[in-house]
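Subject: Protein entry, chain in single-letter code together with its fold tokens

Area: Proteins and the way their chains fold up in space.

Attached in line: The record itself begins immediately under this heading.
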Amino acid sequence: MFYKKPGKDHILVSKGRAQMPCLPKRFSVCVWNLHKCTARRWKEEFAQYCRQSDLFLTQEMMFLPEKESCFSSEGLEWTGAISFLSFLRRAPVGIATGCRAPVIRADFRANVFEPFVQTPKMTLSTLYPTVQGPLLVVNLHAINFTGLKSFSRHMAAAAELLNGFNGPALVAGDFNVWSQKRLNAMRQTAQALHLQEIQFLPDERARFFGKKLDFLFTRGLNVLQARAQISHASDHNPLTAVLELQ
């Protein structure tokens, strides 16, 4: 194994402090794969999008001591799920969800692994208070270099985190749907969960083999605005949306 996995008690981490007691009826969202925070301008753009967002879902976030200020300066409370420790720096890498409201509970799934390097692919669920009751948020970075069977198992793990919850929900992240079969499997899972796929305008989402990689699905939420604009701070472009509770 090239990468070290964290112990069970060190997978979920918490950073920052919430600014609001609950999310308002209308709130803003950003979804962004940060490519392990390697670009020169990632910190400035990350801070900018944090300031504009009530809810922020990141993938490939690197949790380093020198990046602590990024989690504490913009009024977001972050819940992270560590996938592995990087090969060279032993720095924790994973996904994280930040919110201006405090998390009620958090859970994760890590039941699929990338071949060869054997790093687990994380799916994180967080529950937040809103003015109309709890909102469930599922953040995922889907398995990449495998066939359809492992990808479908990852979609099933994400679906499991929504089981039994009938309120408003948001599911987003880097789905790695670079084939039509993967795209179909993702959409079938979303349909079974009564999730609506958001369309973006402009739509500058990152692509691989001509397929868009990043998606945002909602349930019990109205979409007032959705954009995917070009950024040079990552190999993915951020998705932003303004949503409203129904």
Remarks:
- Residues 148-160 form the longest helix (13 residues).
- Residues 8-245 form a domain with the Deoxyribonuclease I; Chain A fold (CATH 3.60.10.10).
- Helices lie at 42-52, 68-72, 148-160, 180-192.
